[in-house]
Every structure is written in C-alpha cells, then in structure tokens.
Specification:
It is a single chain. By secondary structure, the protein is of the alpha+beta class. It has a 7-stranded mixed β-sheet, with helices on both faces. The chain is globular, with a radius of gyration of 15 Å. The protein contains 5 helices and 7 strands; from the N terminus they run E-H-H-H-E-E-E-H-E-H-E-E. The two termini are 27 Å apart. Keywords: Acyltransferase, Transferase. It holds the Pfam family Acetyltransf_1. This is N-acetyltransferase. One of its GO terms (molecular function) is acyltransferase activity, transferring groups other than amino-acyl groups. InterPro entries: Acyl_CoA_acyltransferase, Bact_Acetyltransf, GNAT_dom.
C-alpha cells in the first residue's frame, strides 16, 4: 500500500480507532458472533474506552499503533504484557477497515509492531484468534504465528466460541 504510515496512537485518535474497531468486527465476525451483538456495536460508545486505553500507554511495553493513509486511520494494533506471563507480549487487537483488507495494511502493522516489542525486550508474543475465523488464522500463519495448543471458550454476544492462542518468537 502506498502513502501509508504507522505511528503511535494518541488519545485524539480514539474516535477513528473506535470506528475501525466496530466496522472491522461487524465484517470479520458476521456469521461467527450473533448478529444482534454486532448490530448493536457503536463507535461512539467505544470511543471513551479507546481514549483511556491509548492514554494509559506505557511505550514500548504497551500501546496502540495506527496505520494512516490520506483517508485517515484505516487500521490499528494494540499490544501489552500478557496477563499470564508479563515477560511475553500479547497482541490484543489487530484490525483494519474492511475496505483495505488484502492490501497489506495488516501485514504492515504487524511488521511495524515487532521492533517495538523487541525494544521492550519481549522475546515472545501471543495473540488469540477465533478458531472459526479462517481468514485471520491464515493471515497470522503466513506471518509466522503458530497455534500453541492452548484454547479457551469465549461467550461474546451469548455465543460459545473457541479461541486459540497463537505464539511467535521475537528473536
């Protein structure tokens, strides 16, 4: 993708990040998460949480990285220490507007995030992905991530969903 840059997010980016989050969820999880849950998502209700998350950044240990084009913020990735093992980074979010899927935005965000994780002296990173989200699993596997055998149940929107943990060395 041309004319795209990544940068650390600032609290003023919260509205745009919330918009990407909601649009991405509504497209990516259609058929996986109950539709009434997706239909009820609203960027204006998500904005304050994103403003808080971004404001609480402890760069490079945790933060949000945005992908920006002439159209504005089109994707973002959030990371921080794993709750289970603080010495391991956890990618908590990696989302892009559906209109830019397949253009390299996600790959670019991932590649931009990895040096930051290494700078924070993380040696490994994990992330969680819905077992039935084949598109996301292919994306992560193409980027060197592998399922590590850990799975949990998630009940987002009242549905029982399986989430798989993926892991990648950072060295």
């Amino acid at each position: 993708m041309t004319d795209m840059q990544t940068r650390q997010a600032w609290p003023d980016d919260a509205s745009a990040v919330a918009g990407v989050y909601v649009r991405s969820w509504q497209a990516a999880f259609a058929g996986l998460v109950p539709q009434p849950y997706l239909d009820a998502m609203d960027p204006s209700r998500e904005e304050s949480e994103w403003k808080t998350r971004i404001a609480e950044t402890r760069w490079p240990l945790s933060g949000v990285l945005v992908a920006e084009t002439e159209a504005g913020i089109v994707g973002f990735a959030g990371f921080g220490p794993s709750q289970e093992t603080p010495a391991v980074a956890e990618i908590g979010t990696l989302y892009a507007m559906p209109e830019v899927w397949g253009t390299g935005i996600g790959k670019h965000l991932m590649l931009a995030m990895l040096p930051t994780l290494r700078q924070a002296e993380y040696t490994q990173a994990t992330l969680w992905v819905l077992e039935d989200n084949r598109r996301a699993r292919r994306f992560y596997e193409a980027a060197g991530w592998r399922a590590d055998g850990t799975a949990v149940k998630d009940t987002t929107g009242g549905a029982s969903l399986n989430k798989l943990r993926y892991r990648r060395p950072l060295g």
